[in-house]
Amino acid sequence: MNSNIFHQIIITLFVLLQTQTTYSQSGIAKSLEKGNKWFYFDSNIGNFYKKVLNDTLIGENKYAIITTHYKYIQKKEYERADSTKIYQYSVDDSTEIPIIDFSLQIGDSLNKFVVDKIDTNYFWGKQRKFIYIGTDFFYLYHERTCFVEGIGMFSSEYSGLAVSSGETKLNGAIIENIVYGDTLSTNIKNYQTKYKPNGFFLSQNYPNPFNFKTSIEYKIPFISEVEISVYNILGEKIKILTNGKKKQEFIK
User: Fold this and answer.
1) Which domains are present in the chain?
2) Which terminus of the chain, N or C, has less C-beta within 10 A?
3) pTM for the full predicted model
4) Pairing verdict, β 37-42 and 113-123
5) 3-state SS class at 58
């Protein structure tokens, strides 16, 4: 065999092996295999779901690419998991933060949150650890989230003087081709440009916590004068995000 042809075959095989993607993202903390889906209901925005679309290598770590499908918009997140932690990567500032650590004990802190409850229950076929983390800012803002080992976020609730209160709950999931809970009642359609809100709504900012960038969604039923401002915990206005006549949009 001609040596040049042989080298070309070897190189081609090497490239093919390098481009094959594996999805070994099943940790104790959360399974992030390709195709996994989580179906949620939110008291403000209705049904939505998250799906592992693919994975990608960022630095030395492999992250699952998770797309969130709302009724009006879609967004993309990057997560990885090991035996105890679930991490989220921010493409805006190239940083990674743990969003939960199942090795924490009551009273331990994670970012701005504090663990206030830990429980173990038989859930979706096995004994699973439930861990609750929350925060309070002088009663101006309250947030509490529950994570379940092997599954991820189970529920979240928030309320405050400057934001609408809301609650999110996991209805069902498809994890490694096994169906859990209710995955049939979620009906998500693609974004509709003709959507017209029937009232005023201001959502909690996302992501939260954040470093340099966050998003705030608001809905208004018609063109209106809108002012959205940021206040510190002392009630002092520190920044005006928008002020003037607006349609429905996203502030970043």
Assistant:
1) 25-191 (2.40.360)
2) N
3) 0.65
4) unpaired
5) strand
